[in-house]
Amino acid sequence: MILSYRVRRAVSIVVTVGILGLLASVAGAAPNPDGPTRSTTEQLDQKRYVAAGDRAYVIGSEDGRFPPMGWHIRGEMGGVWAHPIKLLDGYWFRLGDTWLPKASRFTTGAGYVQMRFPNTEGLEVTRTEFAPNRSPVALVGLTLRNPGSTSRSVKLTMDARSEIMAAYPWGWTTPNAKEFNRQDVGSYDDSTDTLVFKESGKPWYATIGASVEPDKGGVSSDFWGPVRGTERDEYLEYGNGTGGRMRWDLSVGGGKERTLWVAVAGSQSSKAEATSALNSVLNDPAGLLTQKVNSRLALLNKTQVNLPDQVLQAAFDWGKLNMADLRITVKDMKVRDVDEGNRYPPPVKTIPSATGIGAGFPDYP
Question: What is the pTM of this model?
Answer without folding.
Answer: 0.91
